[in-house]
Amino acid sequence: MFKEEEYVNGGIYGDIEPLIMTDETEKKFKSATHCNICSGKFSDGLIKVRDHSHIGVTGDRYSDNYSNYRSATCQACNLNLQNPSFIPIFFHNFRGFDSHLLIEAAGKYKDKKIVCIPNNMENPGLAWQAALKMSGVSLELLTSPDMYNFYELGCRGGISMISQKYARANNKYVKGYDSTKPTSYLMYYDANNLYGWAMSQPLPTGMMRWLDADSLMYEIFTEDIYQDMMTFKDYFDTSAYDVENKLHSTVNKKVVGKMKDELSGVPITEFVGLRPKMYSIIYDVDGTQNEKRTAKGIAKCAVDQQIRHEHYKQCLFQNRMTLNDMNLIRSDNHILYVNHVRKTGLCNSDDKRFWKNSIHSYAFGHYKIPIVNKSCNVYCK
């Protein structure tokens, strides 16, 4: 693209030809009453100017009959006819590396015109403004920077907040059940298409309630969580449960807004969460122990091959960080290459909440935080 720009600006537009008029073209200009581009009348306040070709026209440039005058136009249209001296943006909002391959392929068709259908914000924005005007709705003003940042910086999907870093279930469905201790369950729920459900509801105008995730991992103390789910069955999508399970039902299958058990009735034994989007779950299937591990910023292949549930526990209880090796595809000047990277993997540092100990936390602003700090200062002294 830079070579093409240099050729156009230095070669074609390098020698700009000034306006050359003849008596005949001058008469045509003076007799013109409308702009040749927008058809506006010059008597309506439009300034009439002479439009000419900057690179010349066919004919002897030094002849008395030679003129590069094209037509009479208004001043605004004449300025719009100027050719830009910069490279316009021709690709927008690409993700990953596909753009490099597409740009390389598009360069092979320099003699052809490539056209695509643009997608922009003008039409939705116009519809939104029209809806506010016609409905007469008054929107609640956001008065807190935190409320505004919730919209701008809010995380979508996955666990975005860890309030308790470790939990182990104690119920009749898991190994090691101790009947002398309180019965507890670990449940991993996810809302069916929460965004689609929200978009299908009437638009809110105020009285906001704030929640930053659609996936929830809960430690629930109850005698039988599955019996409780049976009581509130209308709120759950249990279509993925085994057909022989009493909770199985296709009534709410893929219904937006319904809560779905991510493990489809398989009981979770243990949970370790180090920081947002970095957690590990142990669950048993037919007596076989399985793990579900996530680690934001680490390639999935590295998580599968190099990290185990035990590493999460060591990081939490012994403060051991991990270093993980990855081969990543990167680009430089639209040239793809493979780069070997070693970076910090599991890390126990989490500054989204106030941690009163290694497992439990408070949200910032909680009334107990000053009490905990005071107790800590007394203990340290």
UniProtKB/TrEMBL annotation:
<protein>
    <recommendedName>
        <fullName>DNA-directed DNA polymerase</fullName>
    </recommendedName>
</protein>
<dbReference type="InterPro" id="IPR043502">
    <property type="entry name" value="DNA/RNA_pol_sf"/>
</dbReference>
<dbReference type="InterPro" id="IPR023211">
    <property type="entry name" value="DNA_pol_palm_dom_sf"/>
</dbReference>
